[in-house]
Specification:
heterohexamer, A: alpha+beta, five-stranded antiparallel beta sheet, 2 helices, B: about 325 residues, mainly alpha, 17 helices, about 80% helix, globular, binds adenosine monophosphate, binds sodium ion, transmembrane (chains B, C, D), membrane (chains B, C, D), Sbt_1 (chains B, C, D), transmembrane helix (chains B, C, D), Sodium-dependent bicarbonate transport family permease (chains B, C, D)
């Protein structure tokens, strides 16, 4: 990346998929861990260890939610550590990767 | 009863929906439309039932309650024995499927009401109570059968107790059941003047809305046809035979124990013959995650529902006529 | 007026929705269903009002307009003074909450219409004009109060002017208001023959559709009950007392200034006592982002709306009867 | 025929929707609401048509079928010649636009029915068959014109054959067409007693539901107005002239060849003058991906539809009256 | 990343966008390639080589689906190789990037 | 990544979250900056500097849109530079990370 350092901040991007029913618990945990910003996409479907989940099935609607969360590395570690014990129960998945936050919008991480 | 009187619009719309699915038409109803119509139909049937019950003797309703509980407990056990004994279906799938057959299908019930209305046959007020009651015990029995299955399989019994309580609560707070009971209570409570004001919405246009519901159900059933191969010959056959077994008990109980009119017996038979696709599937998915949902959904939506709607209802009506000596 | 005549289906369905929420049922109506019913109800009430206005003297409507403007401006100021003076609520939250009480709730209005219809009481054509008018001035006053609040807080007045203009435009192009005014115009313009063709849809089945709307509102109100703790005792109390204050002015204006019949006075009182949850919340979120939305939404949907629907309407009717000397 | 009888509610709601869009109101109907109403209206019109056809001589319907095929084939060719010859529109866009004009707009048809109903004019049962038939040939001709265009442009003819077959299947399994045909069959098949039960839903409240549909169409048309600049003066003019050309053929065929009553001639004219926005756009998007969808959508929804609804229908009616010598 | 290795597993994140109509074919291919987990978001819109696709357009509804898939590097390679021949036909896009799977939920990759 | 270079192209993945009302402005800017492909997911919710935004709230519907955009590094820089002045106004967030474009679908970046 050749962009100047005042443009970008190195950060972590956390991406979590859980059942929609567990979403509010997850977000509660996130807020407790001091998260100041996240984005939620509902009505997702998927395949996992519990088989297929279809949000648009007629008789058996099972919906996932995708949570995307950008934060500084230290914060990411704290979040992961406080989420981990619950992740087993939530199921789904939790990914973490590197990214750059483009400075501009009000800092909410 | 001529052929043309069998051509109830609701059933023809069901056939149209299935046809659309079979010829791979891109016809599709918005999912929310279906949910809305179901809400509307449940309220409509509840209000109508409540109004009818308000003018009848509540004590006379008790036998209907016993019959409903009997079906809810007895039919799943019969289903389980058949599935395990004859079909050699693995215990947990057998338990999940069985639970569905103790419960009822409001859609089938309403189609039967439309059918009776179309040929001008009256019926008692009590079957609607059975409709509201039968969903819950079936879920309970499904859970008991699952526990039994796990025991004979030697598996761990993890958290069975907690699940039992959780599902019991769910069986009684289930949205559809609540809506049905609530509307029955409201229908019974309001004055005739008040009822008249909401009658055009909940009664006059009911049969038309039912047509759209059944067109959608037809598409849903049509979609499941393609899964017949995965489900296997035995289970597909079970999906046709089990409603007939349920119907046998239904018609006997309706005629000899409850002693209803031809219309009433037909409705009781339909209740016993039908199988749930609303409250039971999510409950079984939760209670028996090891079971394959495509088994019970295909049976319920792709097999038993179409069978009852197209063949079952007129058949049960003919049976009720026969028993009544007409 | 017997107890059973108080059991209007619409209100019972509201109670059912709230009950479902309290027992944590999974009952849920599709969000689009709610939007659709609101659209339908607004058009229905507009058409009906327009038709009634077409046959009445337009000059007689003027006092209703003045009353509406008076409520829209006066009630928020009273609310603001109470919130600041007694409740010590911070200025911006006080401004945001106040604006809601100058406005009206179409849902409460329609429930009152259902209530009057259920007991066979007639009413004037003019209150529906007030319904359409009152949303806009309340938003304006909310903005003025916010500006005043910001001044006494010594904060920056950034972009107040632009916001004012923006919100003024919004207040007059708001979808619900437009739908109401537009339908009134259409109801007034079309011939009787034409009106007869759309009457079955917009009038005959209106009361039934209102039941589904109120069941949904009941669930929405039920959801907000859990926020009472966050909102605090004073504000919850305010959510009950403020409609009574509004009602006091409403009944006085309705009886002495407008000199309407018992039914008309009841409707005017309901308008003054009710508080918006359609156009005002988004406007306040935009105009006063510092205010906490859960305050005004909990008050409006969880407190004042249920109070008016369950207790307020019969109370205001009794008051109107009393004033009329009956 | 007075001015006030021209003020059909459906058309006024169309104007309201367009007005809302022009003043940039935030009025918005849920997309699923529109889909649901379209499904409902198509079934309603199909049932009604089927019922009417059941009592009429099927042989007499044949000329209507020929006329429909003639319009479906002839009008796109005329449109293509005008677009290419006068407008110098590129061949593929010309082909895509042309196809739309061989097809019909069910919304315009229903508005015309509402218009005739509003002034108490009766009409034949056959035009509804034309409505159901005309969508398919137009798609075919669109494909032929596209093939021709590609040839004169010297481009590759990749997979034309497969596409042709694919689209032919699609033209006949299209959801809207299927719903219309299916409902016609059901309407014709069911007994009068059965039909009576669903009539309140599908007929009595039909005209009111149509109002909501047209309000939504008004908003949709309003949105497209902003694209007029991109589309250019010629095409906007074409969107007004082409329906008039279609109407000329329609009125001639309706009066001299089909020899229908004034109401029937009006409907035939509307069919010939209107242009599709349901089945044809997706088909053309697939068949001619090189064409710019905003051209044909703007013409169809933003230009021809509003023109027909507001000016066309009364004009065609006046024309039919004139020819009938009234 | 200073988190301990028993917390995270290095993985690949594959992100595919296709028309909703092609989704079931794509997922079929994925399952054939041995994929044990994916997440699907429907009703997406976008711009691409075929122009704009709007899921909420009135007369011309065109919907995309986004598929997110976390898997081990080897598996990723296998998936990509078996998908590639079909990607041309599907259109859309297929991205692959590095990420870390946070250990906790049942392994479904 | 052991895949051969003719399979993958190194690229940047830009992920932007804004209010749905600002979406058309953002996409307009993107198109002006020469973007040839993007994917949009609407109806998202989230938490940020302006508090929570819930797309399914009854009385206060606030919707976010997520825009995902894959492009070459140079192009990414151009986009970021032309977006930055407006990002402050849009709010939300803008992330950028590295990814590989799997060659196959028509190039739309
Ligand atoms: N490897 C994976 N890649 C992407 N999504 C996954 C993966 N595993 C699980 N998921 C998502 O998490 C949901 C629940 O997973 P599970 O709890 O394993 O059944 C699935 O329905 C998927 O949406
Ligand atoms: N460079 C890109 N970045 C993000 N999404 C893309 C890109 N190119 C294509 N897409 C997505 O893929 C869909 C189909 O692309 P196409 O097949 O190229 O028309 C588009 O509608 C976008 O949603
Ligand atoms: N750190 C973050 N991680 C993920 N999403 C964010 C973050 N900050 C803001 N957002 C998203 O951007 C939206 C608007 O943010 P804001 O403008 O800060 O209120 C929020 O509702 C979130 O959806
Ligand atoms: Na049963
Ligand atoms: Na008020
Ligand atoms: Na035409």
């Amino acid at each position: 990346m050749i962009m100047r350092p005042e443009t970008l901040i190195s950060m972590n991007r956390i991406e979590i998929v859980v059942d929609e029913e567990s979403l509010s618990d997850l977000l509660e945990l996130c807020r407790e861990a001091g998260v100041r910003g996240y984005t939620v996409i509902k009505q997702a479907g998927g395949l996992g260890s519990r088989g297929e989940r279809r949000p648009d099935d007629y008789a058996l609607e099972e919906k996932n939610a995708v949570v995307i969360l950008a934060c500084e590395e230290k914060q990411a570690e704290r979040i992961i550590m406080s989420l981990r014990p619950k992740l087993k129960e939530f199921g789904g998945m939790c990914l973490i990767s590197d990214c750059q936050w483009v400075i501009g919008p009000a800092a909410s991480y | 009863m001529s052929i043309s009187s069998l051509l109830v619009p609701a059933i023809l719309f069901f056939a149209l929906g299935m046809f659309a699915c079979i010829i791979k038409s891109d016809l599709k109803f918005p999912p929310d439309m279906h949910k809305m119509i179901v809400i509307y139909l449940l309220i409509g049937i509840g209000l109508h039932g409540g109004k009818a019950l308000a003018t009848s003797n509540m004590g006379d309703a008790l036998p209907a309650v016993w019959a409903a509980l009997g079906f809810g407990v007895g039919l799943p056990i019969i289903a389980y024995i058949i599935l395990r004994g004859i079909g050699r279906i693995d215990p947990l799938n057998a338990a999940a499927i069985s639970a569905h057959y103790g419960s009822v299908s409001a859609g089938t019930y309403m189609t039967a009401v439309a059918f009776l209305g179309g040929i001008g046959v009256t019926y008692e007020a009590y079957p609607v109570i059975m409709l509201a009651i039968m969903e819950s015990p079936a879920i309970m029995i499904g859970l008991v059968l699952a526990g039994y299955s796990r025991k004979i399989m030697g598996g761990a019994q993890k958290g069975e107790k907690g699940m039992m309580k959780h599902l019991m609560i769910e069986a009684f707070t289930n949205g559809s059941i609540l809506l049905l009971f609530g509307s029955m209570a409201i229908g019974a409570a309001v004055s005739d003047t008040s009822y008249k004001k909401i009658e055009p919405f909940f009664e006059t246009i009911f049969m038309g809305a039912l047509c759209i519901f059944l067109a959608d159900m037809g598409m849903e059933a049509g979609k499941r046809l393609s899964e017949f191969k995965k489900v296997g010959v035995f289970l597909v056959g079970f999906g046709v035979v089990m409603p007939l077994i349920g119907a046998f008990f239904g018609i006997m109980v309706g005629h000899y124990y409850l002693q209803y009119s031809i219309g009433g017996v037909t409705l009781v038979t339909v209740l016993a013959a039908s199988c749930s696709y609303i409250a039971v599937p999510p409950a079984m998915r939760l209670a028996i995650p090891e079971a394959n949902p495509s088994f019970y959904l295909t049976l319920s939506l792709g097999c038993t529902f179409p069978f009852n709607v197209v063949i079952g209802i007129p058949l049960y009506y003919a049976g009720a006529q026969y028993l009544a000596g007409q």
